[in-house]
């Protein structure tokens, strides 16, 4: 049966500034330098070639994210790749540390960089999904306590207001904050900056600070332009109980309530659509994760792409708003696996639209490029396009060609 998507469906891909731009000085780069030895050992793929791809190389004490895909320099190459892939939409993020290198200072040269980028996308008829904040913060703010600074709401709101005034004319969809739960989790697990492990701070950042940052900024963008379309990108797991036992079901229920439902309930009134990132399906119980699926990504994540159907239906039933898949993908060196993932995802989205009347606006694959993966480095390959580590040449993978064909046909024929 043909799987044609609604006219105007926004097929695209996503990236984030810290993961592709290079040349950054932000809290993450500082943290990488401080944690160089650990980052060069932890979480790496166990093979020798992977060594040079880790997050930090203590030998030359250089943070590897500081060159990344060098998109700041080669942004036109990214636009070429976007065009070759036939993308209808592209999600990118603005780097806060570029725009506000010092407290109270807004850098007009840097805003120009984003302006010319967005203009080029628009000239090529590519819809722009702009993320205001994808986790990295300026060093001066980090020194003031980062998200725990007493002035965080004021600072963030000023920053977003500046973006809305300067770049608003180009933006089709705003994503104010990326994945509040993932960022907040770093306060629980300590794996990312600021390297704190404190459940109370986690709760505070997740349930109070991030929602308020989001809601204030939503209002600010709407005050500047009533017609703008604003949301956040929420990572939604598909969670089920690992057995019928009531205690396991209760754990799965609680996880879903805490990580997804409660925060979405809090912000949903202040969204014009719902940005959803989908990567995970997990079976939970009192003993933690009990998955039974043996298909895993290079990062060890259990892969079940079809579960995007369940997530879409659940979100639609509870919130009944248009949904935009703002990230979805997998880390793999096996491009056939990526092709399989994309195909299964497209089938599941088609089913959700046709059988459950989900109002799905678009789908953004994570990621356009093989890029820098936070505390891991370069070895997890998420891209539709590879990047040569030396020349920075971009090359479309077979999965990219496969996706591009889907876009041309607006589905699977
Ligand atoms: C984040 C990306 C990240 C991807 C893969 C998402 O949660 O938004 O920045 O690279 O997952 O880990």
How does this structure look, described?
This protein is of the alpha/beta class. The chain has a single domain (3-412), classed as Alpha-Beta Barrel (TIM Barrel). Helix content is 43%, strand content 17%. It has 14 helices and 17 strands. Strand 11 (281-285) and strand 12 (288-289) form a beta hairpin. The longest helix has 26 residues, at 199-224. The radius of gyration is 20 Å and the shape is globular. The protein starts with a strand and ends with a strand. The mean pLDDT is 93. The structure holds beta-D-glucopyranose.
Outline the secondary-structure elements:
Layout: E1 3-4, E2 10-14, H1 17-20, H2 27-34, H3 36-41, E3 56-57, E4 62-63, H4 71-84, E5 89-93, H5 96-99, H6 108-123, E6 127-133, H7 139-143, H8 152-167, E7 173-178, H9 180-189, H10 199-224, E8 230-235, E9 238-241, H11 246-267, E10 274-278, E11 281-285, E12 288-289, H12 308-319, E13 323-328, H13 335-356, E14 360-366, E15 385-387, E16 394-396, H14 398-409, E17 411-412
Parallel strand pairs: 2-5, 2-14, 5-6, 6-7, 7-8, 8-10, 9-11, 10-13, 13-14
Antiparallel strand pairs: 1-17, 3-4, 11-12, 15-16
Helix pairs in contact: 4-6, 8-10, 9-10, 12-13, 13-14
The site of beta-D-glucopyranose has 10 residues, from loops.
